[in-house]
Automatic annotation (TrEMBL):
UniProt source species: Chloropicon roscoffensis
Residue ranges with Basic and acidic residues bias: 43-57
Domain Amine oxidase: residue ranges: 2-318
Record GO terms (molecular function): oxygen-dependent protoporphyrinogen oxidase activity
Identification of the protein by name: Protoporphyrinogen oxidase
Coiled-coil ranges per UniProt: none
GO CC annotation, single: chloroplast thylakoid
Pathway: Porphyrin-containing compound metabolism; protoporphyrin-IX biosynthesis; protoporphyrin-IX from protoporphyrinogen-IX: step 1/1
Length: 345
C-alpha cells in the first residue's frame, strides 16, 4: 500500500488513517471481513442494483479508456463555469474578516477597487484548512486550532518530454503504443519520484509526434527537502529516476516543459483527522455560526471525484439551510451592502 499512499497523498503510510484516507477500502474490509470478501459483496450489490445509464450527452470514450479530460486541459471546466456565472464570480477579492451578524454574515474583502462588504445568509469555506483557520482564529479559536493542525507537505510537478525512441522497448505493446496510465514508485526502489503519468499515452495532442510526455511528482511527507532544490535540480532528479525504470539510460536529455512546487500541497488524513474536522464543525456550531460550512479536499477527500461529490453535498446542505431560514422572518439587509443567499470563499 506504500506506493499508493505516496502516489495519492504523497504521504507517510505509517501515519495515514485508513478510514479517513481510503474509506472505500476500509468499508470493504469492515463489511466483508476481508478485502476479497468485501469486493465480492460489492460485485453482488452492483449486479443487484446496476448503476444508472450513462448520460447520452457525454462523449463516448475510446474502448478501454478509464479516464478523461478536456482537449485544452482541466482548466476548461472552471473557465466555462466562470463564463456562465459572469460577474457573480469575484476574482482578486481577498477575504479579510468575517463577522456573525443579525440574519447571517458580514464579509469584508480587500479588492482592486478598495474595501467591499458582502452580507450573506450562508458562507461556505472552500479554502485550504489553514486559510480557513486564520480567518476564524478570533471568532472560533477552537475551530482554528483543529483546522490548523492538518499537515500539508510540499509536492513538485515535473513535466518532461523525451523522444519516443528514449522509451525502453519492453514498454511498447503489439500496437506500438505504451498502453498504460503510469506508474507508482515504492521507496524500496531507491528513487525519490513519487509517481509518473504517461500523459501522451492517455490523451491525444499532448505533445508533438515522435515525442513522449511524462508528468511526474516529487516531494511529499518523506521528502520535504524539495523546497531547498532549484527547478533544474528537481528536473534532473526526476530524469535520473526515470532512467532506472522507464527511459533508456543513454537517452538524450529531455525537454523540461514545466516545473512547479506547491509548498503546501495535499492535506494528510492522519489518524484522528475526521475527529478533528468534526470538532471544528462542532466549535463553529457552539459559537453560533450556523450556516457556515467547511468544505474542500481536507473535508471530502483529495481525489477530484471526491471533491465534486463533496461539493454536491455541501450545496444540498446550503439549500436546506436557506429553506429553513425562508420559513422564518428574516431581517432586512443593511443598505449599501451587496446581499447574497450564500457566498463561497
Amino acid at each position: 500500500i506504500e506506493p499508493f499512499c505516496s502516489g495519492v497523498y504523497a504521504g507517510d503510510p505509517t501515519k495515514l488513517s485508513m478510514k479517513a484516507a481510503f474509506g472505500k477500502i476500509w468499508v470493504l474490509e469492515k463489511e466483508g471481513g476481508s478485502l476479497v470478501g468485501g469486493a465480492l459483496n460489492l460485485m453482488k450489490e452492483k449486479k443487484d442494483n446496476p448503476p444508472p445509464e450513462r448520460d447520452p450527452r457525454l462523449p463516448t470514450p475510446p474502448k478501454g479508456q478509464t479516464v478523461g479530460s478536456f482537449r485544452r486541459g482541466l482548466q476548461t471546466l472552471p473557465n466555462a463555469i466562470g463564463r456562465t456565472l459572469g460577474d457573480r464570480v469575484k476574482v482578486g477579492w481577498t477575504l479579510k474578516d468575517i463577522d456573525r451578524s443579525a440574519g447571517g454574515y458580514k464579509l469584508t474583502y480587500s479588492t482592486p477597487e478598495g474595501a467591499k462588504f458582502v452580507r450573506a445568509k450562508s458562507v461556505v469555506f472552500t479554502t485550504p484548512s489553514y486559510v480557513a483557520a486564520q480567518l476564524l482564529r478570533r471568532e472560533i479559536p477552537d475551530a482554528h486550532s483543529q483546522l490548523n493542525s492538518f499537515f500539508y507537505p510540499p509536492v513538485g510537478s515535473v513535466v518532461l518530454s523525451y523522444p519516443k525512441s528514449a522509451i525502453r522497448d519492453e514498454m511498447f505493446g503489439p500496437d506500438g503504443r505504451v498502453n498504460a496510465f503510469g506508474q507508482l514508485h515504492p521507496r524500496t526502489q531507491g528513487v525519490t519520484t513519487l509517481g509518473t503519468i504517461y500523459s501522451s499515452s492517455l490523451f491525444p495532442n499532448r505533445c508533438p509526434d515522435g515525442e513522449f510526455l511524462l508528468s511526474s511528482y516529487i516531494g511529499g511527507t518523506l521528502n520535504q527537502g524539495i523546497l531547498d532544490q532549484t527547478e533544474d535540480e528537481l528536473a534532473a532528479q526526476v530524469d535520473g529516476d526515470l532512467r532506472r525504470m522507464l527511459i533508456k539510460p543513454d537517452a538524450p536529455k529531455p525537454k523540461t516543459v514545466g516545473v512547479r512546487v506547491w509548498q503546501k500541497a495535499i492535506p494528510q488524513f492522519y489518524l484522528g483527522h475526521m475527529e478533528a474536522l468534526e470538532a471544528a464543525n462542532e466549535a463553529a456550531e457552539e459559537a453560533g455560526y450556523e450556516g457556515m460550512f467547511l468544505s474542500g479536499n481536507y473535508s471530502s477527500g483529495v481525489a477530484l471525484g471526491k471533491c465534486v461529490e463533496g461539493a454536491y453535498k455541501v450545496a444540498d446542505d446550503v439549500a436546506e439551510y436557506c429553506r429553513e431560514l425562508a420559513s422564518m422572518a428574516a431581517p432586512a439587509t443593511a443598505s449599501g451592502d451587496s446581499s447574497e443567499e450564500s457566498f463561497f470563499v
